[in-house]
Recover the amino acids of this structure.
């Protein structure tokens, strides 16, 4: 886990509590590093640091890493490992070494857990808070197997401390131990033999944020493995729900109970046990007679989870009938038992709904082909004459009143049909709310069902006919015809919407096409493009700008590329990608300044395909948004199971797909990032040198005085955009691909090699009007393309080999130059942050970040005290120039041998 991510996940308060430091009022604590009688250790949750203000202490100011090092007497590496576990583990963190391979011979897990749980059961009987909690949750602790963890078991069983640590029931802290799941009620998890092999803990304190805990390496099921002789398996969402149902005799007599561990909690052990139960039919009954009933919560997560688990179980056991209890909105089993009589469970179970697993389309669905709105062949109208025989006549007027799309009206000689709410946009169903009115009496029947399901339609017609005193066969014919009309209406609406929202393809005028082709047919195209980019508004940054231009132009090609521009605040990185993206056809560019967690999942299926996504600042992206962006970059598709609420308030599960590929340009101020984010992109460091700053200021002055012609800039951009429009996506073959190897010490060398080949391919595609094709129509890479790629990518390759990130490396080189200017004894020279801040003109916060990073990487050392000020000295004098020369010799040596 990256250091920055650790600091984002863990607050200094949480780490201090985990280390056993008790924090009192005003976020102060007694400092454990000196004899402290009045709290002198001040915590800042906002800055994520702790500072000891006592003159008797040399702690100074520390972050979560420094605090952990001092408190546990660990090295930096050991502290980072400890904090990574603390941040990433949902199960207890054991500081003991991993048990040896012979652990099962040393530890009898069921025996130990049986003893521990017996102790917990007795503890519950002696704990008023635990008994009160059970009463509040309507759990009869005298009927159920429930315990309570007081956290004192190991006090009287010291001979079992090591096994308890290995099992995760104890965590070693300093010279003592912390009990896992302290203050929780406890339920046993059983194996096939009925032995306790795991424990589930639930907080009895309602104020705690995290409610559920399992032992590490979770094993066992609750309450038991299902008995093979039973035919109905009831699966509630949680253990507390299952325990609730265990107390109802009428349910336990008819159903076998097996708890899921949450909406996503049907584990491989569950599936193996369910499969064994299903394939062990009672007496001589067939497997098909077995039934599984899911009883999940009545919220969005519960409904979605039940649908997903049902699909999994159906694939595992296609012959077993699977149904779902429709739990009231925002309710769960345990809450229902508290606020209702037990009859509600009988009613809900009797009215459960089967899952319908469709495996093929009807011929009617396969043959439909609606081209445009208004160009719909009218369906056939079927009716019955007075004698009861069927007559078939074409209906030229659809008769569908869609003036109000949320109240569609369909009148017939038999009845008037009102479709309330809009028609579903998902093409594989037609679930609607229908109001059927008897024309003569005005009486109405209201129902909700899926018109695509023949049985549901037949049932709805029969029930409406009975209530309204109408003929069921005529109503059914009306509903069948209405289905066709709604189907045609929906498809026409979707086609129209696509026309309205889709951006039209821009056609380059013939005269301008000729100019673009002439420009791209001449030699040294990459260099000439670079000159045009300078005229379009980017001064200096000669290598970075053509690098970004090549990456940006790949968005509609077979191998799309991605860039992350790195630099300090105000360094010009956002301006850089803004100008580069303005050189791309605007109809293909999506610029984003803010991205919410789930926004990428909510685009249309093809809305992002072959687009250039520009994110001005990735630092504000939440983890889920980063993940989605990363998946679009590498896997080129987002697939998510989600719940969709229609206009009538009904929630149903659906799969949303957003397809790539995409190209992307983004910026960041962070030096360290999640490794998976960095390895998928080219890291480009903004030039923050004094020389580049002077170039930018000179350009700004010339633009303000009118020396630079804005119209010429705009015309240059338009010309480049047309050139990009003229590029066609080709497959590329590179005959030199196996003859150029990157330095093996480069970070993530496998992915970097793929990026290198993809970049060469893009250089070849830009030169497509000068390149030959093979018999299969593929562009052939030439040596010039490989050389251009190495020239442009060189700094990025160096960054992948260098331990320091781009902006940190630039600062370190400036720092070394400044220290070397102090004379022959420069290697012993000590400096302060204030000195460097003034000498190099760097902001305090940025300098503090650089200094901390160099300290952690052990490039510099710190001495002194917080109250008197720190001083620093460089201890690692590496040579960037030597590194660059070595890599250059390695790469160009191979190039010269081609």
């Amino acid at each position: 886990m990256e250091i920055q991510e650790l600091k984002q996940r863990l607050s200094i308060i949480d780490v201090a509590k985990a280390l056993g430091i008790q924090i009192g009022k005003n976020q102060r604590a007694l400092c454990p590093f000196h004899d402290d009688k009045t709290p002198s250790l001040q915590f800042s949750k906002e800055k994520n640091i702790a500072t000891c203000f006592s003159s008797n202490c040399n702690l100074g100011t520390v972050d979560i890493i420094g605090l952990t090092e001092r408190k546990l007497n660990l090295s930096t590496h050991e502290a980072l490992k400890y904090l990574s576990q603390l941040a990433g583990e949902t199960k207890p963190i054991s500081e003991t070494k991993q048990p040896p391979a012979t652990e099962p011979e040393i530890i009898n897990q069921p025996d130990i857990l049986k003893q521990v749980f017996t102790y917990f059961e007795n503890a519950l009987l002696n704990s008023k808070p635990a008994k009160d909690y059970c009463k509040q949750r309507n759990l009869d602790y005298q009927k159920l197997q429930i315990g309570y963890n007081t956290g004192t078991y190991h006090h009287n069983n010291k001979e079992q401390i090591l096994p308890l640590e290995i099992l995760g029931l104890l965590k070693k802290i300093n010279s003592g131990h912390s009990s896992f799941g302290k203050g929780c009620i406890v339920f046993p998890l059983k194996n096939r033999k009925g032995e306790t092999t795991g424990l589930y803990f639930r907080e009895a304190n309602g104020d705690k944020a995290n409610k559920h805990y399992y032992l590490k390496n979770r094993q066992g099921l609750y309450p038991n493995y299902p008995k093979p002789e039973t035919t109905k398996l009831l699966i509630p969402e949680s253990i507390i729900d299952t325990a609730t149902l265990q107390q109802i005799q009428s349910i336990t007599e008819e159903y076998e109970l097996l708890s899921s561990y949450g909406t996503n909690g049907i584990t491989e052990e569950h599936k193996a046990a369910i499969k064994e139960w299903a394939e062990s039919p009672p007496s001589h009954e067939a497997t098909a007679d077995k039934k599984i009933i899911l009883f999940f919560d009545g919220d969005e997560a519960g409904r979605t989870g039940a649908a997903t688990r049902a699909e999994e179980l159906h694939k595992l056991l296609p012959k077993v009938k699977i149904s779902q209890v429709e739990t009231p909105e925002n309710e769960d089993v345990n809450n229902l038992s508290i606020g209702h009589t037990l009859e509600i469970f009988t009613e809900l179970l009797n009215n459960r709904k089967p899952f319908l697993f469709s495996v093929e389309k009807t011929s009617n669905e396969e043959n439909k082909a609606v081209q445009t709105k208004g160009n719909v062949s009218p369906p056939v109208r079927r009716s019955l004459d007075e004698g009861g025989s069927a007559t078939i006549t074409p209906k030229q007027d659809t008769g569908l009143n869609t003036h109000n799309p949320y109240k569609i009206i369909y009148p017939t000689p038999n009845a008037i049909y009102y479709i309330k709410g809009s028609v579903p946009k998902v093409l594989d169903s037609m679930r609607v709310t229908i109001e059927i009115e008897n024309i003569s009496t005005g009486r109405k029947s209201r129902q909700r069902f899926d018109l695509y399901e023949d049985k549901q339609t037949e049932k709805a017609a029969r029930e409406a006919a009975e209530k309204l005193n109408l003929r069921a066969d005529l109503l059914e014919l009306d509903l069948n015809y209405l289905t066709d009309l709604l189907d045609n209406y929906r498809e026409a609406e979707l086609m129209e919407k696509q026309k309205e929202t889709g951006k039209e393809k821009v056609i380059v005028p013939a005269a301008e096409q000729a100019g673009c082709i002439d420009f791209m047919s001449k030699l040294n195209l990459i260099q000439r493009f670079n000159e045009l980019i300078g005229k379009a508004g980017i001064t200096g940054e000669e290598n970075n700008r053509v690098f970004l231009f090549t990456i940006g132009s790949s968005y509609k090609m077979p191998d799309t590329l991605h860039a992350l521009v790195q630099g300090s605040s105000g360094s010009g990185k956002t301006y850089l990608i803004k100008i580069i993206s303005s050189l791309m056809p605007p109809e293909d560019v999506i610029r984003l300044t803010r991205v919410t967690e789930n926004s990428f999942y909510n685009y249309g299926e093809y809305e992002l395909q072959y687009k250039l996504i520009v994110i001005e600042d990735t630092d504000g992206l939440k983890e889920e948004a980063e993940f989605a962006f990363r998946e679009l970059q590498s896997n080129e598709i987002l697939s998510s199971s989600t719940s969709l609420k229609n206009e009538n308030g009904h929630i149903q599960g659906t799969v949303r797909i957003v397809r790539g590929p995409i190209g992307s340009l983004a910026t960041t101020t962070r030096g360290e990032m999640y490794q998976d984010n960095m390895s998928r992109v080219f890291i480009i460091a903004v030039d923050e040198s004094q020389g580049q700053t002077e170039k930018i200021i000179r350009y700004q002055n010339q633009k303000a005085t009118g020396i630079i012609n804005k119209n010429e800039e705009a015309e240059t951009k338009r010309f480049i955009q047309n050139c990009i429009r003229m590029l066609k996506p080709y497959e590329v073959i590179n005959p030199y691909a196996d003859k150029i190897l990157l330095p093996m010490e480069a970070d993530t060398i496998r992915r970097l090699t793929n990026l290198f080949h993809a970049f060469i391919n893009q250089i070849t595609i830009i030169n497509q009007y000068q390149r030959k094709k093979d018999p299969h129509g593929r562009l052939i890479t030439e040596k010039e393309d490989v050389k251009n790629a190495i020239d442009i990518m060189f700094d990025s390759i160096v960054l992948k080999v260098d331990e320091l990130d781009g902006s940190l490396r630039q600062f370190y080189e400036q720092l070394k130059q400044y220290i070397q200017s102090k004379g022959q004894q420069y290697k012993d020279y000590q400096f302060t942050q204030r000195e460097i801040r003034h000498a190099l003109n760097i902001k305090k916060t940025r300098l503090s970040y650089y200094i901390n990073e160099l300290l952690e990487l052990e490039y510099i050392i710190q001495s002194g005290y917080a109250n008197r000020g720190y001083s620093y000295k460089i201890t690692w004098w590496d040579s960037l120039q030597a590194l660059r020369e070595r890599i250059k010799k390695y790469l160009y040596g191979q190039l010269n041998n081609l």
